[in-house]
Specification:
single chain, 96 residues, mainly beta, three-stranded antiparallel sheet, 1 helix, globular
Length: 96
């Protein structure tokens, strides 16, 4: 018997939804005054940013977005911070 083993390639993709968000801002006030016009991808089951969700640069959910601890706004006027691992924190509604 030949000992041939088939190798399988495992991807660490996660289910993602599209999120429309702004470019980075240094603070939440500037983010709230920004235009949400950049397409990214978000874990969490829907396109609403929530604490602990992760932002990705690709639709496969394999390339984590480096948010650089900056602030962003979504197209539904939620401002949030994203760390260098793509994790969202501090989600709040603009103007509140």
């Amino acid at each position: 018997m030949n000992g041939i083993i088939a190798a399988s390639r495992r991807t660490n993709s996660v289910p993602v939804d599209i999120i429309i968000m702004s470019n980075s801002s240094a603070n939440s006030t500037d983010a709230c005054n920004s235009l949400a016009n950049v397409t990214r991808y978000i874990s969490g089951g829907d396109s609403t940013p929530s604490n602990g969700d992760v932002i990705y640069t690709n639709s496969n959910g394999t390339d984590v977005f480096n948010g650089g601890n900056n602030f962003y706004i979504s197209d539904d006027l939620l401002v949030f911070k994203v760390n260098s691992s793509g994790v969202i924190s501090g989600t709040s509604l603009c103007g509140v």
